[in-house]
Amino acid sequence: MGEERRSFAGTHITLAILLIVAVAASAGVGAFTFTPAQMYRYIGQSAGFIPAAASDALGRNVFFQLRLPRVLMSALTGAVLGVSGTLMQGLFRNPIVEPGLAGTSAGAAFGAALVFVLGSGTMLAFTTVAGSLAVPLLAFGGAFAATMIVYRVASSFRKVNVFTLLLAGIAVNAVCGAGTGFLSYIARDPQARNITFWNLGTFTTANWRGVTLVAVCFIVCFVWTMRSGKALNALMLGEDEASLLGFDTDRLIVRLLVVNTVMVAAATAMVGVIAFVGLVVPHVLRMLRSSDYTFLIPASALLGALAMEVIDIVARVVIPPAELPVGIITAVVGAPVFLWILLREKRQGSEGFYG
Amino acid sequence: MVELSGVTYRAGGALILDDVSVRFRPGKFNVILGPNGAGKSTVLRIATGLAKPNQGTVRYDGQPIESFNTTALARMRAVLSQHVELAFPLPAADVVMMGRYPHYDRVPTPQDRDIVRRALEAVGMTDKRDQPYPTLSGGEQQKIQLARVLAQIWNAEATVAARSPRYLFLDEPTSSLDVHYQIHLLDIARTLLDHDCTVVAILHDLNVALEYGQHFVLLERGRVALDAEDAGAITQGDIERIFQVRARRLDDGGRGFWRFSL
């Protein structure tokens, strides 16, 4: 296992390098194209080691106020969704779970929409300090309630049943979707009115306030879960077996639910519901290397960020000057993978899923 | 030594165990017997710390079970249950390594790896170590699980004096296995008795139980009906009353076995 651990690190480093390349590319591509030299000059100018030039003011503004937050937001969102998919698959002991299916994202969107729509014009508008606290709080409340309902329904009798999981997910998604739809219908604020924002996700509205919020939530949650790898591995054997190996299973489950919900709520409140990333990212990693969670947790953050960055580049360049909502791309890629996993698991006839 | 005294357990208003006191004999193959619903599995769940009794105490070597933290407990007792499925394609050796989780923090030590290797060897699964667990047959999967629990309570200390007592619980481990795997698995469990290990097993097949067991606890409706030091102390009358069957003792060249009918 010594060689294995080194090769885990090798995969992590490779993914990290690819991510840096993708972030740099993503920062350059779009309605405004920035060359590496330009980007270097802008960064230098605002850091102060290159004298600020008035001719660069517009480009610098676009780069720092629009492009950079967007690039960071898509990387963060991808990392959140990747890690979330990994954690939820570990929690549900099932490879087909992800925040979009289990109601987490829809619950978060509903909670966030409540603040955006009903709070607009009051002291709770998102542009105020109270509002920027209320959005993640309500998103978290919605996401947590939705996930808990699905988990409780699906895991009765000490065993997670896929059918009840999917059906409970459909029901909870429908209720939250209806709630969000109603809110966006009565909304006056053009952003909240935009139903595609909630259903398909977009990074066009990314700003520094949102990036900070998602970054803080992600980093805190990620650090908190980093050491859960062994416990998640043991949980593959079942709750009793994990307890017998000395893990506090009840506390682990609560911690996973909270961590997962906080991250997904923050990201969803800022960019909307993006499905299938959390499903495909861990799956690719399992095929590529290993189902060992000590490997998967960091790797899914890196690959999630990388995948989302690439998808966002595609979204920006595929139908210029318009933009494709990223959720369309993730669904086109993710849904067939999801069906493929379902069929494969059915062929294996593992009764753990279908019993 | 594991000892339950005055254990009472209720679930959903029903009395599952009623004042059960059992002392599992150290270094022996202890067997819990009884009809369905007698509370065998509950006794095991309570003895291993998975469930807490409403009344009564569980002691390991004289210490109450609550005085051990979960990791310390995991290092001295392991449970092989009926059938563990894995939804993810982890290699067999990685599953066995889980048995060492209570012993290392982040990275397994060379000793942990050595124990995993020896545990795989002990169950005869060395050549399957890299195979994904879900692709193994039911019997092979159960052997890997046995290797995992062996690794969990492996006594690595060099001298006998330094070794601490270990406990292996078997919860109907052979119920889904064919007769070959069944005997193989119980034989391996029996060899542990020579390594400072106490075995406590729930076994389905009465004849198998009587052959392997060295101490018997018969449960009936949540109470201890009989506590017998050897198989000979269990009479035809006991079996017929507790299991609600007619039993006849047959002789096979000096080794007796039971034949049942209704």
Q: What's the structural blueprint in terms of helices and strands?
A:
The complex is a heterodimer of chains A (355) and B (262).
Chain A: H1 2-28, H2 36-47, H3 57-92, H4 104-118, H5 129-154, H6 162-186, H7 190-193, H8 195-200, H9 208-225, H10 229-235, H11 239-244, H12 249-271, H13 277-288, H14 293-317, H15 326-348, H16 351-354
Helix pairs in contact in A: 1-3, 1-14, 3-9, 3-12, 3-13, 3-14, 4-5, 4-6, 4-12, 5-6, 5-12, 9-12, 10-14, 13-14
Chain B: E1 2-11, E2 14-24, E3 29-33, H1 40-47, E4 55-60, E5 63-64, H2 70-76, E6 77-80, H3 92-97, H4 110-122, H5 138-152, E7 166-171, H6 179-191, E8 197-202, H7 206-212, E9 215-220, E10 223-228, H8 236-243, E11 246-252, E12 255-261
Parallel strand pairs in B: 3-8, 3-9, 6-7, 7-8
Antiparallel strand pairs in B: 1-2, 1-4, 4-5, 9-10, 11-12
What does this structure look like?
Chain A has 355 residues and is mainly α. Chain A is 76% helix and 0% strand. Chain A is built from 16 helices and no strands. Mean pLDDT of chain A is 83; it is low at 350-355. By secondary structure, chain B is α/β, with parallel strands linked by helices. Chain B has one domain (2-261): P-loop containing nucleotide triphosphate hydrolases (Rossmann fold), CATH 3.40.50. Helix content of chain B is 29%, strand content 29%. The longest helix of chain B has 15 residues, at 138-152. Chain B is globular. Chains A and B meet through helix 10, helix 11 and helix 16 of A and helix 2, strand 6 and helix 3 of B.
Give the tags.
heterodimer, A: 355 residues, mainly alpha, ABC transporter involved in vitamin B12 uptake, BtuC, 16 helices, disordered C terminus, B: 262 residues, alpha/beta, six-stranded mixed sheet, four-stranded antiparallel sheet, 12 strands, 29% helix
